[in-house]
Amino acid sequence: MSSSLLSVINLTKKYGDFYANTDVNLNVKEGSIHGVIGPNGAGKTTLFNSLAGSTKPSSGKIIFDGQNIEHLEQYDRPILGIGRSFQVTSLFPDLTALENLRLASQAQEPARGFVFWHGITRKGFGQRRALHMLHRLGLDKQAQTPIKALSHGQQRILEVGMALMSEPSLLLLDEPTSGMGVDDIPQMINLLKQLREECTILLIEHNIRLVTEVCDQVTVLQAGKVISEGTPLEVSQDEKVKTAYLGEGI
Ligand SMILES: Nc1ncnc2c1ncn2[C@@H]1O[C@H](COP(=O)(O)OP(=O)(O)O)[C@@H](O)[C@H]1O
Ligand SMILES: [Mg+2]
Fold it and tell me: Is the C-alpha dihedral spanning 237, 208, 188, 170 positive or negative?
């Protein structure tokens, strides 16, 4: 049995008197795709923010690759190998798909640093990695297309590619299919299946078809607490999960 790449131990996040996460425990096995599901407001994004370092937990531990990381700053975590998908708004809308990936590549080159004003005019730098990534994403034909002219689904796929440019060992994806049309979802499913070979993935997702097809394990949150965990089949048969989703219409 493979070991845990990530362990979350009794993680609690309070906003004033409100508990967004209460004593959350989670183990993500190396090489697995682990889903986090739950109704709106369950605390899924809050948990991710604690993992990525954009928020500090009120108490509890986060152990990544054998190291306590809950005290580390957000900018230290990608260096350890934790990647997070960029939000749509953080793509550069006037730049092309290729240029966006080249910037992501450049941001990962410590020797050169993030020299923004050099990056997109200097041919060759990061170009090969960016072209390779576009090919993997199935977006070769969109290389010269500005982001704002891509479909929403293509933008979501590109965001995953942006996060991959840092070659993370753990990739955090917060609802990668949100706002995607049903026709685009198989492309995301295929991409995630391919990624299984290269990194561990922790995935917040509403699309149950995707969760069932790609996740090995699923943790279900409700009102900030873990109410169930297991394989997609096991959690889908759990009465507590069915009750939690009543009225959500998933
Ligand atoms: N910065 C914040 N300040 C106060 N409350 C917050 C903040 N962020 C999230 N919350 C609250 O925490 C709860 C969980 O939110 P969130 O983690 O975004 O849920 P989910 O991603 O599962 O929909 C919600 O009730 C939300 O209003
Ligand atoms: Mg959320």
Answer: negative
Summarize the confidence of residues 83-91 as an average pLDDT.
74
Closest CA relative to residue 126, chosen from 162, 82, 77? 162
pTM of the model: 0.90
Q: In a 10 Å sphere around its CB, with 0-12 CB exposed, 13-18 middle and 19+ buried, how is residue 15 labelled? A: exposed
pLDDT tier at 3, thresholds 50, 70, 90: confident
Ligand 1 atom nearest to 18, measured from its CA: 5
Closest-CA residue, ligand 1 atom 18, reads 45
- Decide whether any atom of ligand 1 lies within 6 Å of the 190 Cβ: no
Q: Which residue has the tokens 């209460």?
A: 22
Go through 55-68 and write b for each residue having 16 or more CB atoms within 10 A of its CB, e for each that does not.
Answer: bebeebebbbeeee
Query: What are the tens digits of pLDDT across the range 61-83?
Result: 999 999 999 999 998 998 899 99
**CA angle at 218 for the pair 213 and 221, rounded to the nearest 5°:** 130
User: Does 8 have pLDDT greater than 80?
Assistant: yes
Helix (H, G, I), strand (E, B) or coil at 64: strand
What contacts 10, CB < 8 A, 6 or more positions away?
23, 24, 25, 59, 60, 61
Q: 46 CB less than 6 Å from ligand 1?
A: yes
